[in-house]
């Protein structure tokens, strides 16, 4: 009797972006979702369904038909039968709540980066999505990290993740990226996008995300042209948002009007035109401040384009010794890299050859095969572990004795401090010490900022005994370093304080109301820019220690 294949549900919501004419909608994450799907359907290990959010259903069905896979079933939250699912593969967003709560389904998810935590001072898009991701991370699910650096970052910020259930699965460039040796084809593509035929050009994708550091790259380019009198050199920006970027450059670059002629914006670039454009470029520059992988760099190397990239985060893993790595904040180093490629033809040729070799080490087939092997070998163990965990929780709920919440005391290395705005724990021993003095968010003093701490921000039952099990479960969601504690507080404390300052009908003790009001006023001071969040936290810490 033939054994039934396990049912794998793949989140293909982003496949709806296939028909977008915006480069911003077709990011590296979109191409990751797309290419993993193409490899999964070729793999015969699992029965496969495509899950998508309701708004994307029509576009996803059309995308599957255009890819010659119209027979693959598409389900949404309303039509998905959880009893038939063995595995759920979340390639972008966390699994839906109903899937996340099901102990019978093994969950697998790709982790890309922790940009909001790594660069807290830089505004990044999709903050709501990242908050959902944070809440979903746990020690039961399996995770695919796209680089060694990404894995280290997630384990650093989220100790609740099990390292043994976290694998490194490097991404790859699409087959659409190839080394184009056809000079006529390159010439035609340059003509199509208004690039001069006989002038060398540096290529970069146009993006408004500050972490991509594009303004810095262009400023260094203008300075280089000015110093070297490189009147023939062009900087080509591919993609949209050019008007906004040009306005920012005009404000940021001295003598912008003089050197504006060296900058060419192509607008939206067809996928089939990227390979010839990259193959014909003198080099690509990608000096991002933070990357989880760095797919544009790999795509460029696969097209034989020499690379200038950052020497930080994951980019050295991708580039190896095949390009020039520079400090993304060092203008002198970047100008020197421009100079090397501009003046040294032999070095440029060598970098091109090394890049092609380096790119050959990455393939979507190997990436997805590794993922498939992990899913096939662990899905039974994962479900069994989740069921056992569920049984333990049921038994734990029957335990009536009170258990310590954190089990940690004030020491020189580790401390549990206070959370603002929690309601009173009326039946806790010593109820006169209101909750603001019992539970809270860990705030390490400045000299202890690099120690690991436990954080908790959330609601506590008011009119009944504290649910310690609930709190312990929540603590697992909010663990990390000092910077992570600040991040957690920054995104939750305002709402929490506004809820609890007025009490919303809950009769709070006068002392707690006063503490909440003082803390709320401090938060308002921070928002007005008079003091940093770190200063405010330490001030609250001192205030409560003195009471």
Topology:
Blueprint: E1 7-11, H1 28-42, E2 47-51, H2 57-66, E3 74-75, E4 87-90, H3 97-100, E5 106-111, H4 115-118, H5 127-136, E6 142-145, H6 148-157, E7 166-168, H7 183-192, E8 201-205, H8 214-228, E9 234-238, H9 242-252, H10 256-259, E10 263-267, H11 271-279, E11 283-286, H12 295-302, E12 307-310, H13 315-319, E13 324-326, H14 331-343, H15 345-359, H16 364-397, E14 453-454, H17 468-475, E15 479-480, H18 482-502, H19 510-527, H20 533-546
Parallel strand pairs: 1-2, 1-4, 2-3, 4-5, 5-6, 6-7, 8-9, 8-11, 9-10, 11-12, 12-13
Antiparallel strand pairs: 14-15
Helix pairs in contact: 1-16, 7-11, 8-14, 12-15, 18-19, 19-20
Notable characteristics:
seven-stranded parallel beta sheet; 547 residues; six-stranded parallel beta sheet; single chain; alpha/beta
In short:
Helices cover 44% and strands 11% of the residues.
